[in-house]
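Justification of resources, computational component.

The compute hours requested in this renewal are based largely on the per-chain cost of generating structure records like the one below. Each record pairs the submitted sequence with a full structure-token output. That output is archived, and it is also reused by downstream analysis tasks.
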Amino acid sequence: MGFFVGYVLGFALGMGLIVGFARFQNIRSKHRTDLAQVIAAFARMTVQDLRKLFPDQSYPAWLTWLNHHLDKIWPYVDQAASEIIRNAVEPILEQYRSSIMSSLKFSKLTLGTVAAQFTGVSIIEGDSDEIIMELELQWDGNPNIVLDIKTTLGVALPIQVKNIGFTGVFRLIFKPLVDEFPCFGAICYSLRQKKSLDFTLKVVGGDVSSIPGISDALEETIRNAVDDFTWPVRQIIPILPGDYSYLELKPVGTLEVKLIEAKELTNKDIVGKSDPFVELFIRPLRDRIQTSKTINNQTNPIWNEHFEFVVEDFSTQHLTIRVYDNEGIQTSEFIGCAQLPLAELEPGKVKDVWLKLVKDLDIQRDQKNRGKVHLEILYYPLNAENELYNPFDPDFRLTLVEKAFKHATDTDPLKPASPMKRDVIIRGVLSVTVISAENLPATDLFGKSDPFVELTMKKSEQKNKTRVVTDTLNPEWNQTFEFVVEDGLHELLILEVYDHDTFGKENMGRCIMTLTRAILEQEFRDSFPIDGTESGRLNLRLKWTPQTIIRD
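The structure output for this chain reads:
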């Protein structure tokens, strides 16, 4: 009897705990859902909604006064600014016009009846001869904007831009300060930061989605144009007579990018694998976007390509990469994108980075693994001091990483270049010692492997391999191989680890590396992770013996 009572009580207690836990989870889930709805509602709030929630006393008196007078003069701002915006924006849209559009112009442009609202003003410390003011602005307007678009197929479309919601920070620079009224010579203005931009597109009398590709192409054009209006791009308005060309946007440095490889890219093809290529840019102008070659049927592509970019503001600009799947005559399919702030780089130092791909750079809510891209990057300012060795010599017509080795043929960085100089090739002998490996995966039936390593120079296709070490997951080889390298900065070393079988070999993983570190350091020893394994590592020693030659 006691056993039966204990059994019943235990069962009842267990069921009670299960029901209680389930009820707790339901309440917790409902609380999260309600919280998400509240946050989404706040995100959709306009300036007018905020005014209903917060009394005028919540705003500084001078800001309330400023917005009140902006409301009064908005009709005149509309008339005065519409033509200025049209003349300023049309050339920018033309620069970013997609290839499927032959022309893109405004047919109507008014700012509507809803005034923008200032939500903050700040003064930034600058040089002694300038005043920098930043204005935070929010606009949930009702403008009448119609774009006349002609496609390459000859189809004309009037497209209306509706439901614009914009929040951003504008920068005004009053420079130089002078002793003549109004006490400054010119005004520079720019969009310092775009916090949010939402809009919808509608064909007047139709549906924009009825023509494939137009909606996405136009939206990308508009967003790229707004991004390129962001600082350091600026417009200059002279107030007093004078030469203000020194205020214009000018190059301050050069960025050298080596696109090495990508891993685990999303497969966009139903049959086979993706055919990935990469677009790289600092400013998304058509003549500044650089494109890699396409690697067919591969989700772990190796590019080994070099690109060079002009930098105009090291502290605020970014390197952006976009990876696509090439669909031939159809529109390429987007895989993912990534961005690297240039401010994270150390001038004159090569940085090796892996960038994780995301769906959207502004709203990174997508947790899907889209892959990652391997880059080698070098930034160098144009006005570098002598103590920071300048790897950028305009007399050499090679990529800038190569120019880092200019001292091989010219020890005096101030000496003018001879017109007889030719492109420098970094030639030498690479000695690779494969010391050992650790934590290799077990591939044999009894929990062991018979590993060996194949070494390949990708460009020259030289190959070597170690001996096979049997029945171990931590092999030791201590074998040295030498490769004659004709073009060190365009070469890749690939080390693939295999398990030896009676009837063939099984791939366990690989390491891919450039020769930049070996050329810079001459000799080093390090442990490298083996891609394709959970924790496997390859211990190597690399030594570089240089022999620089001149290309005729």
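The chain is about 20% helix and 40% strand. The CA atoms of residues 140 and 165 lie 5 Å apart.
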